[in-house]
Amino acid sequence: MESYIEPVAQFFGAAWPLVWSLLKIVGIIAPLFLCVAYLTLAERKVIGYMQVRIGPNRVGPYGLLQPIADGVKLLLKEIIIPSGANKSLFIIGPVLALGPALAAWAVVPFSEGWVIGNVDAGLLFLLAITSIEVYGVIIAAWASNSKYAFLGGMRAAAQMVSYEIAMGFALVCVLMISSSLNLTDIVNNQNKGQFADMGLSVLSWNWIPLFPMFIVYLISGIAETNRAPFDVVEGESEIVAGHMVEYSGMAFALFFLGEYANMILVSALTSILFLGGWLSPVGFLPDGFIWLALKTSFILFLFLWFRATFPRFRYDHIMRLGWKVFIPLTLFWVVVVAVWVMSPLSIWK
Amino acid sequence: MLESYFPVLVFILFAAAFGFIPIVAGWFIGPSKPDAEKLSPFECGFEPFEDARIKFDVRYYLLAILFILFDLEIAFLFPWATILKEIAANESIRLFGFFEMIVFLGILLLGYIYVWKRGALDWE
Question: What stretches pass through the bilayer (chain B) (predicted)?
Fold first, then answer.
């Protein structure tokens, strides 16, 4: 491998780090978009079977070409910019909704050493970059100059920021027991402990000592991505897709891609922070990327399952859950974990 | 050390630029036949009346301010949480390092209870 790269690196000279980074970035974004495309198909299939239907099955074998047909359809549609809209902001809105969902992958480790930027402030970077998504929603809602978009955007923004606090406290708990903001270190730290030494690393992962935080993080992740049952933002029966109401064609597709890329991101982060990332659950199986893929797929399946099962929450119930249940619970758990780490009973020496 | 951040910067720029590609592609490939009806804002079938920049509930402001406060607290907790095990291992700062943050969280809790009692978290 090295001997092939060396001559190419010399050819590009000083620009090589840039070219090499771009190659790696394309190597992540291309599979990611394939996953996003097939996640939309998986969603329709899974929900279809849960409702005793068969889902899309006309385009290609088993409907496998359906996402491509959807993409081509959206590409051929007109991009409408309403007459009252702020034109430049109207275009920037969806770009800002997709951009952070992609940029966050810069620090996500796929396996030992498989990461674009192995930075020490990885978790802080994630917290910062995922906060930017809310600007995409607000800008799109404001620029549309439509009442439905405006009200939907206010709702979406309030909901996203509310659940970010609970998520942040859950992250603080993970930090206390892993002592590092670097995501690779966070995964490797889960491979230590009494059970990991016995070859049962599944019992050493963060999800057992931090079980309430694992649940809070998962539910907040669903609320943060505005997925069912927290999807009042789109609420087609009341505010007809909220901030996306004036968007069409590829501009709408960007919101759509952003939402699904975010779902995959939240699932991958839950796997990394609480479910041991690429670690194998038992000692006799090798660690590797396949485990991260399996865990992420499982959590994505939960997203789809929840959508098929739960009725939509009322907005005041959503806000009550975020502010009056999750914040006190996580705040309390931060103190519990802090006391646990300080006490002689600490299992994270 | 700092050069490990370079790919991250490239990724951010790439992601920011990437969103424009589909829009530009859609702009050239898709049709463009605007008319006054099509370009008017959506309003359940009738003519839109008054501007969309309407008054909205003051609670959204309040929520945004509360969010900033709590998010800052979290950012403040991050460095402490990262070195908590070192604090626990060091006898001389052990109790101080722990209770200092408990006092901080206590003040945060007081503020939170006040906000709750004043009804800022109620939606009806």
Answer: 6-29, 60-81, 93-115
* Residue A319 clears pLDDT 70, i.e. is over it: yes
Domain range list for chain B: 2-118
Start-end of H helices in B1-124: 6-18, 20-29, 36-39, 59-82, 84-89, 94-117
Largest CA distance in chain A: 67
CA distance A250 to A235: 21
Q: What is the pLDDT of residue B69?
A: 87
**Residue of chain A whose alpha carbon sits nearest to that of B80:** A176
CATH number given to B2-118: 1.20.58.1610
The b-or-e profile of A292-330 (16+ CB within 10 A means b, else e) is beebbbebbeebbebbeeeebbebeebbbbbbeebbebb
Give the pLDDT of chain B (124 residues) as one tens digit per residue.
Answer: 677 788 888 888 888 888 888 888 888 887 878 787 777 777 666 666 667 777 777 788 888 888 888 888 888 888 888 888 888 888 888 888 888 888 988 998 998 899 889 887 777 6
**Contact of A225 with A331, CB cutoff 8 Å:** no
Q: Which of A147, A213, A238 best probes binding to B when mutated, by most B CB atoms within 10 angstroms?
A: A147
Residue carrying the six token digits 């993409």? A71
Contact A145 B27 (CB under 8 A): no
Number of H helices, E strands in chain A: 14, 0
pLDDT tens per residue, range A126-154? 888 888 888 888 898 888 888 788 888 88
Chain A: closest CA distance from residue B73 (Å): 9
Which site among B63, B66, B118 would you substitute to test the A interface, given the most A Cβ atoms closer than 10 Å to its Cβ? Answer: B63
pLDDT of residue A1 exceeding 60, the answer is no
Round to whole Å and give the CA distance between B15 and A64.
28
Q: Which residues of B touch A335 (CB under 8 A)?
A: 102, 105
Candidates A129, A334, A348; nearest CB to B85: A348
CA angle A282/A285/A288 to nearest 5° reads 105
Residue of A nearest to B31 (CA): A78
Note whether A244 and A328 are within 8 A (CB).
no
Helices (H), A242-288: 249-274
Length of chain B measured in residues: 124
